[in-house]
Amino acid sequence: MMNGPACGRTRTSVLRTWQSWGMAQINPSILSADFARLAEEAKAVQGADWLHVDVMDNHFVPNLTLGVPVVESLARATDTPLDCHLMIEDPDRWAPRYVEAGASSVTFHVEAAAAPVRLAREIRAKGARASMALKPATPIEPFEDLLPELDMLLIMTVEPGFGGQAFLDIMLPKIRRTRELIAKHGLQMWLQVDGGVSASTIEQCAEAGADVFVAGSAVYGAADPAEAVRALRAQAEAVTAQSSWACDH
Ligand code: DX5
Ligand code: ZN
Questions:
Q1: pLDDT (0 to 100) of residue 245
Q2: Any idea which residues carry the catalytic annotation?
Q3: Could you say which DSSP state residue 57 is in?
């Protein structure tokens, strides 16, 4: 096993060329930010890898947030790439619109997608990273053959819909099994966790195999959000450096 925080690799680009083994990316969720000051709130987490943008339609989840026009404005207001998490019905219709709006990564829920393979290919063809999310009760195993179509898999560690919920540690085995499937297929895809990720839960997620961490309340609820991002990343990378999943390649 190689040692060191990055297993000898370097941060290069946010898009597909990025070699992320051994590195942790922290994506602050603007769901916990002040929606009246989104541009400033984006600047408050300078140094974050991505901004996580939760799109909710009050149908797929019982909450309503923002849509394409807000994403368009936010993309113009920040240099941090946007990671759009679509908690909406009919992502087959809407996800490509979020790429056009300026998102660099678009995540759709498999529970809502009519044709996930076609949708992932369309997102990639439009120039963004394609990502698929699983709610807590959705297993990974039926989707093993779809993994090569994806740049990232998102495992929800709360029921989607609201920030500030408690982390579901019963998701840790699913994270571990997903990381094993990624290794089995020799894929470089990222594994994201979202929901209840904080200083007290991020290490378990990293140890299980996650390498992209969404954090809403843990970042925007902190006195210094940019410092919270750095601290979370350092915690995750310290664990990852010791984890066999990250460095045994
Ligand atoms: C929940 C959203 C999350 C949320 C996470 O459905 O998808 O991105 O903002 O918030 P915290 O980190 O506070 O659990
Ligand atoms: Zn989210």
A1: 85
A2: 54, 194
A3: B
Alpha carbons 244 and 22: distance in angstroms, whole number: 10
Pick the residue whose CA is nearest to atom 4 on ligand 1: 163
How does 151-187 read in b/e, with b if 16+ C-beta sit within 10 Å?
bbbbbbbbebbebeeebbeebbebbebbbebbeeeee
6 Rama class: left (phi>0) / alpha (psi -120 to 50) / beta: alpha
Beta carbons within 8 Å of 91's beta carbon, 6+ residues apart: 108, 109, 112, 113, 119
Closest ligand 1 atom number to CA of residue 167: 14
- Are 247 and 239 in contact, with CB atoms under 8 Å apart? no
| d(C-alpha 95, C-alpha 159), whole Å | 21
Tokens of 110: 């498999």
pLDDT tens sequence across 11-57: 444 444 444 567 899 999 999 999 999 999 999 999 999 999 999 99
Model-level pTM? 0.93
User: What CA–CA distance (Å, rounded) separates 144 from 235?
Assistant: 30
Residues 6+ away with beta carbon under 8 Å from 51: 27, 28, 30, 42, 45, 74, 78, 80, 81, 82, 83
Give the strand pairing for 82-87 and 105-109.
Answer: parallel
* Pocket (CB within 6 angstroms of ligand 1): 29, 31-32, 52, 54, 85, 158, 160-165, 194-197, 214-218
The pLDDT tens digits of the residues spanning 130-150 come to 999 999 999 999 999 999 999
Amino acid symbol at 228 = A
Q: For 23-247, which CATH class?
A: alpha beta
Q: Is 246 helix (H, G, I), strand (E, B) or coil?
A: helix
Q: Which string of DSSP letters, residue by residue, matches 150-186?
A: -SEEEEESS-TT-SSPPP-GGGHHHHHHHHHHHHHTT
